[in-house]
C-alpha cells in the first residue's frame, strides 16, 4: 500500500504528514486527539542519516509534546549495506533510534508501529519493533531474510526450508508468522482507522511478546527460559 | 602473565573477568536447555545454546554477567540464547545488582532460527534499556574472535559503557554481507587491514563508540570493567539529546570521509598510517587528545 492511500485510510484526510524522500513525518488527528506520525517509505534502506533523522523527530516529540501518541510507519529493507555506514558506526545510530523510542514509551507516550510495506531485520528491530504495540497490514511482509538467501547462508536446501515453514513459523517471512510468535499485537485489514483508534487506547507496559508467543503456540521456549533465568535461586 | 581474551572460551573469559570463585551459573549446561529449532535442521545443539549467564562479584561488588561463545554458531542469537540474555536483564531490573556485564561475541541473529532470533534480539534491547532505566549500569566487553555484529552490534551500543580491545570488532553488517550485496569494490572482506580499520577497536575508540580500549588480556578487561562500575549514564531525555548532538556532529564532520584513514587525519592524528603499528599504550597516548567522546 502506498503512503497516501494508507494515510487516507487511517485518518480520512485529517492529517498533515509530509514525505521527503524516504522520510515521513507530521501530525494527524484521530478520535479527537493529535498524534505524531514518523516513519519511512519506499522500502527504505536505513543508513546513518535516516536513522538520525528518525531519532531526531521522536526526541522532538518527547521534548515538545509530552505524552502525545506516536505512530511509527514501517517500510524498510533493513539497514543500508554500505561500508560507509559501517565506517561511521551505523550500529550506534540504530541504537540511538531504539533508545529514543524506548524513552518516548518510558515518558508516557503511547507508541504504536504499523508495518505497511516491508520490515526487514535491522531496520525493523531498531525502529518499529521497539514500539509497545506492533501491528502489520495483512499485505505486509516481515522477515530476517528471504528463503533463497537463507538457504544460501545456512547451506540448507530451500525445498527443506519451505517444507519446514508449512508447520513452523520460525523460518519463513510473513506477518502471520510474526503474529504466531508473539511479535505482533495484531494484523489489520478492513477499517484501518478503527484499528488504530483501538490500538491507541491500549496500555503500555512490560514486554508481552514471549507470553503471547507461548499462548499462540508459535514460540514456546523463550518464555520458559527467560522466566527460569529471571527467578531461579542461585545454587 | 597475559592471558589472551581473544583466544579464550566464553567461560574462561567470564571466570577471569569476575572475582575468583564468585560465579554461579543460571540454567547451566546440566539443565540441558537447548535450541528447539536446530534438530529440525539436523544441526547439533549446545547445552548452553552458546551463552553462559549467571551471578558473581566484580571487585567485591554484586554483578550479573553473560558471556557469548563464538565457537557455537558464531555466537548468534537463537530463541534460547536470546531468552537467557533477556531473562538475565530482567533479573537485573528486579534485583538491582551493581552492574550487568555482557561479554559479547556474536554475528547477530541466528539465521537458522530466523524469526525467533530477530524477536529475541528485540527483547534483549528492551530488557537492557529497562535495566538501565532502573539504574543498573550495563557494560559491554568486546574482544572475541567473531566480533559483535548484526542486532548485537545495536545491543552493544544500548549499553552504558563499551570496552574493546584492538582485536575486537564492532559493527552491524559484516564485511562479507556487504561484499555479497554490493561487490568486492564496495568492501573487500578479505582485505584484513581494511576490515580492521573500518570496524576494529582502535577506530571505534577514536570515534567514541568504544569508551575504553584495553590490551588483549583478560586481566585488562577486568580492570576496565571495574573502572566502569560507576559510569552509569541512564537513558534520560537530557542524555539522549546529548548523544544526538554528538552523533549529528560526528556525521557532519566525517560524513564525506571514504576511509578510516581520512577520519583519523581529520581528527588530527598525524601518523594515521602507522596507527596499526602502535601498541595499546602508544595508541592510547596518541589518541588521548584527539579522540571523540560520546
Spell out the key features of this protein.
heterodimer, A: alpha/beta, 2-enoyl-CoA Hydratase, Chain A, domain 1, nine-stranded mixed beta sheet, 9 strands, B: 294 residues, alpha/beta, seven-stranded mixed beta sheet, 7 strands, 41% helix
Summarize the structure.
Chain A is of the alpha/beta class. Chain A is built from eleven helices and nine strands. Chain B has a domain of 184 residues: Alpha-Beta Complex (2-enoyl-CoA Hydratase, Chain A, domain 1).
**Structural class by helix and strand composition of chain A:** alpha/beta
Radius of gyration of chain A: 18 Å
Structural class of chain B: alpha/beta
- If helices are DSSP runs of H or I spanning 4 or more residues, what is the number of helices of chain B? 11
- DSSP helix fraction of chain A: 40-55%
CATH topology of one domain in chain B: 2-enoyl-CoA Hydratase, Chain A, domain 1
Mean pLDDT of chain B: 96
Overall shape of chain B: globular
Rg of chain B from C-alpha positions? 19 Å
Show unreliable segments of chain B.
Answer: none
Compute the average pLDDT of chain A. 95
CA distance, first residue to last residue of chain B: 33 Å
How large is the share of residues in beta strands of chain A?
15-25%
Amino acid at each position: 500500500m502506498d503512503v497516501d492511500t494508507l494515510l487516507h485510510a487511517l485518518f480520512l484526510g485529517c492529517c498533515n504528514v509530509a514525505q521527503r524522500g524516504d522520510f515521513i513525518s507530521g501530525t494527524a488527528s484521530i478520535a479527537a486527539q493529535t498524534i505524531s506520525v514518523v516513519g519511512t517509505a519506499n522500502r527504505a534502506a536505513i543508513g546513518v542519516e535516516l536513522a538520525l533523522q528518525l531519532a531526531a523527530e521522536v526526541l522532538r516529540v518527547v521534548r515538545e509534546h509530552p505524552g502525545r501518541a506516536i505512530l511509527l510507519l514501517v517500510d524498510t529493507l533493513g539497514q543500508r549495506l554500505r561500508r560507509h555506514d559501517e565506517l561511521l558506526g551505523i550500529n550506534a545510530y540504530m541504537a540511538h533510534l531504539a533508545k529514543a523510542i524506548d524513552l518516548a514509551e518510558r515518558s508516557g507516550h503511547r507508541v504504536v508501529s504499523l508495518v505497511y510495506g516491508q520490515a526487514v531485520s535491522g531496520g525493523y528491530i531498531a525502529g518499529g519493533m521497539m514500539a509497545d504495540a506492533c501491528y502489520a497490514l495483512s499485505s505486509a511482509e516481515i522477515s530476517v531474510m528471504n528463503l533463497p538467501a537463507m538457504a544460501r547462508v545456512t547451506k540448507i536446501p530451500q525445498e527443506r526450508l519451505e517444507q519446514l515453514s508449512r508447520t513452523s513459523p520460525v523460518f519463513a517471512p510473513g506477518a502471520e508468522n510474526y503474529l504466531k510468535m508473539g511479535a505482533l499485537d495484531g494484523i489489520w485489514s478492513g477499517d484501518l482507522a478503527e484499528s488504530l483508534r483501538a490500538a491507541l487506547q491500549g496500555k503500555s507496559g512490560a514486554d508481552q511478546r514471549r507470553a503471547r508467543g507461548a499462548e499462540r503456540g508459535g514460540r514456546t521456549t523463550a518464555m520458559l527460559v527467560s522466566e527460569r533465568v529471571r527467578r531461579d535461586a542461585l545454587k | 602473565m597475559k592471558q589472551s581474551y581473544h583466544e579464550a572460551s566464553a567461560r574462561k573469559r567470564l571466570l577471569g573477568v569476575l572475582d575468583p570463585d564468585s560465579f554461579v551459573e543460571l540454567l547451566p549446561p546440566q539443565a540441558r536447555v537447548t535450541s528447539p529449532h536446530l534438530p529440525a535442521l539436523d544441526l547439533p545443539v549446545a547445552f548452553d545454546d552458546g551463552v553462559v549467564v549467571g551471578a558473581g562479584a566484580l571487585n567485591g561488588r554484586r554483578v550479573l554477567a553473560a558471556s557469548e561463545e563464538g565457537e557455537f554458531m558464531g555466537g548468534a542469537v537463537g530463541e534460547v540464547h536470546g531468552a537467557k540474555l533477556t531473562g538475565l536483564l530482567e533479573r537485573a531490573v528486579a534485583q538491582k545488582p551493581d552492574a550487568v556485564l555482557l561479554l559479547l561475541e556474536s554475528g547477530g541473529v541466528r539465521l537458522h532460527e530466523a524469526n525467533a532470533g530477530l524477536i529475541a534480539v528485540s527483547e534483549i534491547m528492551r530488557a537492557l534499556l529497562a535495566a538501565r532505566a532502573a539504574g543498573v549500569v550495563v557494560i559491554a566487553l568486546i574482544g572475541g574472535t567473531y566480533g559483535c555484529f548484526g542486532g548485537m552490534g545495536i545491543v552493544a551500543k544500548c549499553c552504558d559503557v563499551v570496552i574493546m580491545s584492538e582485536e575486537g570488532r564492532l559493527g552491524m553488517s559484516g564485511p562479507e554481507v556487504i561484499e555479497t550485496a554490493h561487490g568486492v569494490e564496495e568492501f573487500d572482506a578479505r582485505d584484513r587491514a581494511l576490515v580492521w580499520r573500518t570496524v576494529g577497536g582502535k577506530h571505534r575508540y577514536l570515534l567514541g563508540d568504544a569508551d575504553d580500549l584495553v590490551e588483549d588480556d583478560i586481566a585488562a578487561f577486568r580492570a576496565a570493567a571495574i573502572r566502569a562500575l560507576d559510569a552509569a549514564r541512564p537513558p534520560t531525555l537530557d542524555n539522549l539529546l546529548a548523544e544526538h548532538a554528538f552523533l549529528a556532529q560526528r556525521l557532519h564532520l566525517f560524513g564525506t570521509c571514504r576511509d578510516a584513514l581520512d577520519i583519523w587525519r581529520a581528527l588530527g592524528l598525524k601518523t594515521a598510517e602507522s596507527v596499526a603499528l602502535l601498541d595499546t599504550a602508544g595508541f592510547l597516548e596518541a589518541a588521548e587528545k584527539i579522540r571523540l567522546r560520546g
